[in-house]
Amino acid sequence: MTGHHLAQLNVGTLKHPIDDPRTHGFTSMLDTLNAVADRSPGFVWRLVGDGGNDATAIRTSLGQDVIVNMSVWQTRDSLWDYVYRSGHLDVLRRRAEWFELPKSAFQVMWWVPAGHVPSVEEAVERLELLRAHGPSPIAFGFRDEYTAADAASAPWPSTVAG
Amino acid sequence: MEDIEAIVALQDPVRRRLYEYVAAQDHDVSRNEAAESAGIQRTLAAFHLDKLVDAGLLATESRRLTSRTGPGAGRPAKLYRRSGAEHHVSVPARDYRTAADLLAEVADGARLDAELRAAAAREGQAARAAAGAVKDLDAVRAVLAERGYEPRTDEGGAVLRLVNCPFHVLAERHPALICGMNLALLESLIEDADGLRARMDPRPGLCCVAVEASKNNDD
């Protein structure tokens, strides 16, 4: 649907500190991967920490050892092609070397009006919604095919539910 | 039953030749090109191509091959490419796909990436032990074709790209797990091929792995 973009947040718990040599395989590829993202078709925006070139310095209410990655894309397919059809896949293939086994959903997507830059708090809220209520038009994953129109008419779960 | 009909449509040798030609091209194929490849008349080629479309094996679209539009531009050409649909027939009925997806779901959730890669490497080793070492580019191409990868040379013959993913449905549902498995399998299969290596190089619409000359200073 035109007029809307797809925002995504993914989170991971590092096995070792970000500056640990055992994490180097991951951190050494970040600049390359981010450069690939920046010039991918359909890329709109990604989260970057103050004075950095990536989001690894940003911490959220999810915890001190949890690093986040967040971006906005024109379509689901443009995001898919970056995540799974670019050099990024080779890093995913090695995820178990650097990240703990996730105990709950670690990736969430939702539609935003084109031009809206989502905040980290907003993104974490969407992840919490997905974790608490499962996929819905307001917080979903790659397997789900919700449109921005679905999201516009979807009810938000009340805070007491779930 | 539709699947059986699709497969039966390939029994005709001319039709099968046309299908294989279209599937092997990196572009959509016109009736003229297909007819030429099979050495038959254009009208006969059109008949068989449309039978393949009816069977769900090929997809088609009409497109003008020139930028001319308006009166006098002629009818748009009908172009063919392989359809994205998969066709399976098993007699009696078997459902390995559901089982494979459930197993992959569990392995993905438990992050058994390394264990699956090790198993894939053993599978590659066993294949080498059974069929003999794969030594050069021609042998690599043959073994990949045999396994359904549909290898195609690229960059002046320096790179083999794989047009078909034999694990397509699973790879779409569990990419990190299944593509890692696929790479480990291919690495192991072509381990004896001097100066060649399998490498992750995913591109839209292709298998995640490419085979290329190994660089001396690499790894």
Number of domains of chain B: 2
> Judging from the principal axes of the Cα atoms, what is the shape of chain A?
globular
Quick one: biggest sheet of chain B?
A: 4 strands, antiparallel
Please list the strands of the largest sheet of chain B in the order they lie side by side: 4-5-7-6
Query: What's the CATH first level of the largest domain in chain B?
Result: Alpha Beta
Mean pLDDT of chain B: 90
User: Under CATH, the topology of chain A is which?
Assistant: Alpha-Beta Plaits
Indicate the proportion of strand residues of chain A. 15-25%
Strand order of the largest sheet of chain A: 2-3-1-4
Mean pLDDT of chain A comes to 92
Which residue ranges of chain B are poorly predicted, with pLDDT under 50 across at least 5 consecutive positions?
Answer: none
Interface with most residues: A-B, 15 and 16 residues
What overall form of chain B do the CA principal axes indicate?
globular
Helix content of chain A: 25-40%
N to C succession of SSEs of chain A? EHHEEHHHEHH
Number of helices of chain B: 9
Number of strands of chain A: 4
What is the second-level CATH architecture of the largest domain in chain B? 2-Layer Sandwich
